[in-house]
Each structure stands twice: as C-alpha cells, then as structure tokens.
Amino acid sequence: MDARRKIVIAHTDNTVRNAIAQLLQEDGYKNTRITSNLGDFLSGLRQAGCVILGKDMDFDAFQLARYIRCGQNGNDKNVPVILVVDSKTPTLELTAKLYQIDFIIEESHLDKLKSVLASVDSRRRSILIADDEEDTCNLIKRLFRSDYEVISANNGVEAYSLFKKHQFDVSVIDLMLPGIDGETLLERLLDQAPQHTALVFTAYKDEAIALRLLRKGGFHYMTKPSNPTEIRNAIQSAMQRSIFQKYTAYARKSLA
Fold it and tell me: Which residue has the higher pLDDT, 146 or 64?
C-alpha cells in the first residue's frame, strides 16, 4: 500500500490507538486520522484509503462496516477494512465476513498489522474483460479503475489463460470473440469456477441466445451498444452477487 494513502482508525481504547499509531509511524504511514468519536471518524472517511476499526466502541463496528460498503458518505465502498479485537472466535470471524470486513487482528498480535497493510492491494477485487473492441475495454476501465483492478484480453484464448492465473471476481465477455468464442469461454470459466459471476455482451438482440447463456450460468446478458450507466449498474450488480456468493459459501463452510 502507498504510505501516503490516508488511514483512518476508530478505537475507544487509548492504549490500543497509541500502539496502532506507533506501528504505522514506524512503517512510514504519516497520513493517519485516529479517533474514538463517530462524527470525527465519518468526516475523515471520504478520503480514507484504509479503515481500522475497534470492535468495542460506542458505535457498532459491524454496522459501520456496512455503512462503509454502501458508500453513503461518498467514500470508496471497496476501501480495505481491518477489525482489531481482543480475541477471535468462529462466530466473530463469520460475522466479519458477512459484513465484508477484510482482516481481523487480535490486540495481542498488532505486529501483524504491517504485513496485513502490505497485502491489502493484492486483495483488491478484480474484473476480467474479454472483448476485442478496444472502445468497450477502455470504457469499462474508465468506469471502474478507481474501484477495482481491471484487466482486458482481446481474444478468448488469452482471457481463459488470464482466468486460470488470477482469481477474478467478475468477467465481462463479448459473445463474438476471436480464438475461443464467448459462449465457449463462458462454459470453460464456469467449469473452472462454477460460482463465478460472468456477464455477456453481444451486438445481437436474440432472446433465444440470451436464455441459453443464462441457463448455462451467465449472470446477465447485455446488447451493444449500451450506455455507461447501464454498464456500470450491470457490473456493480455482478460484483455484489460475486461478493454475496463468496460470503455465503464461507458461511456454509463455517457452519458445517
């Protein structure tokens, strides 16, 4: 993580706050905001590049995490959230996952904060674009590059190779791809990762094709050209579905 990125810390325990502040200072993080006041925290949230929360606060940390993920304060909805607790339990870990908290650190192991911050960027959610139209790829990159990692491929072979190497959250697939066509690529991606969320773009308005792709596991079907608002809404819905799928799978595994 860029040491110049702003880190906002909310914790009521003065000793823990000071310990976190010292660790951040030692690691070169100078742009920090440390508070135990809700109003002060919210005022600094909009510029936050990372959020560190304490569980035992005057306000509920889980509800605050939900507030962050909604972006109601004009903040980055995908900002990394770290929860600092006195001790971890299976129930707490499950709840944190459901509220989309990225990391949990115990107060007795605050030294792990440095390695967690170093790994934050590698946990950024990602989108794979499989489309040979440069304009479409560039449009999606402009819409989402501030929120997600966006990688494009101009043919099906390259897209499938990238998919096998990276854990993409969402794929956007053009039906008429060179190399491997979009429908075949969709089948291969879902064979590789059955819960993966994929949207399909095509220039053809054919309900039979759309129904076939949805039955094969596609999340959404859009025709070209689509305006930026429609594209943004579709991909955001796909990302939310992907996040929900992952946390639901985690919950089932934890409760099994």
Answer: 64
Q: Which fold has domain 125-250?
A: Rossmann fold (3.40.50)
Spell out the SS3 assignment of the chain.
Answer: CCCCCCEEEECCCHHHHHHHHHHHHHCCCCCEEEECCHHHHHHHHCCCCEEEEECCCCCCHHHHHHHHHHCCCCCCCCCCEEEEECCCCHHHHHHHHHCCCCEEEEHHHHHHHHHHHHHCHHHCCEEEEECCCHHHHHHHHHHHCCCCEEEEECCHHHHHHHHHHCCCCEEEEECCCCCCCHHHHHHHHHHHCCCCEEEEEECCCCHHHHHHHHHCCCCEEEECCCCHHHHHHHHHHHHHHHHHHHHHHHHHHHHC
Asked if pLDDT for residue 71 goes beyond 60, the answer is yes
Tell me the CATH architecture of domain 7-122: 3-Layer(aba) Sandwich (3.40)
CA separation (Å) from 247 to 78, 96, 100, 130, 199?
A: 15, 10, 8, 26, 20
pLDDT for 205 equals: 79
Cβ-based neighbour number of residue 234 at 10 Å: 19
78-109 burial, b at 16+ Cβ within 10 Å, e below that, comes to bbbbbbbbeeeeeebbbbbbbbbbbbbbebee
